């Protein structure tokens, strides 16, 4: 778990305590939030992931198997929407649309915590050299389970532009113990 996520939850005020995790994986983050008194919703495109997450959370949660770019997020519902190591699995256009939907789904002053890969690091360390270059910082793996699936990578300036709809935006670079650095974006509606 990203340690700054726990710090972020401690530092912020959440009035309704209703969270949505986009790409919930095995539910580690939602489990932590449930223990902190949050109502927890999550989506993931993997059936296995949603099954595991459903099993570890109580019945008050809503965990769905869905594609984040297709999923209709209810408007004005959440005071926390977060997505860790997930929303870059698409084209930059898809991701921009999703960020707008996230803004619509937050109540006033609702918070975001979102990570995105740092393109500078990925290029410098040679991680993209065997991938298919789709242009505009988007690459697709040439082999493996995610073969052909676009993965978008960002400069800090691009991240700033992506989150223009939000206020109090804070962008940090997380390199801790990672092969490839990622941007951590915090902000509020
Ligand atoms: C690297 S895992 C991160 C899981 C979790 N957020 C974490 O940090 O432990 C990425 C997750 O994103 C999910 N995912 C990938 N593309 C997705 C999509 N289009 N819609 C929803 N989930 C997606 C995968 O199934 C996977 O569970």
Explain what the structure shows.
By secondary structure, this protein is an alpha/beta fold. The protein has a domain at 3-15 and 71-188: Vaccinia Virus protein VP39 (Rossmann fold, 3-Layer(aba) Sandwich). Helices cover 29% and strands 30% of the residues. The protein contains six helices and ten strands, in the order αβαβαββαβαβββαββ. The strands form two sheets. The chain has a seven-stranded mixed sheet with strand order 3-2-1-4-5-10-9, with helices on both faces. α4 (92-105) links the parallel β4 (78-83) and β5 (106-117). The mean pLDDT is 95. Bound molecules: S-adenosylmethionine. S-adenosylmethionine binds next to β2.
Kindly report how far apart the N and C termini lie: 24 Å
Strands, count: 10
What helical percentage do the residues reach? 25-40%
CATH topology of the domain at 3-15 and 71-188: Rossmann fold
Number of helices: 6
| Known CATH architecture of the domain at 3-15 and 71-188 | 3-Layer(aba) Sandwich
Tell me which ligands are bound: S-adenosylmethionine
The main sheet comes to: 7 strands, mixed
Classified in CATH, the superfamily of the domain at 3-15 and 71-188 is Vaccinia Virus protein VP39
Quote the average pLDDT: 95
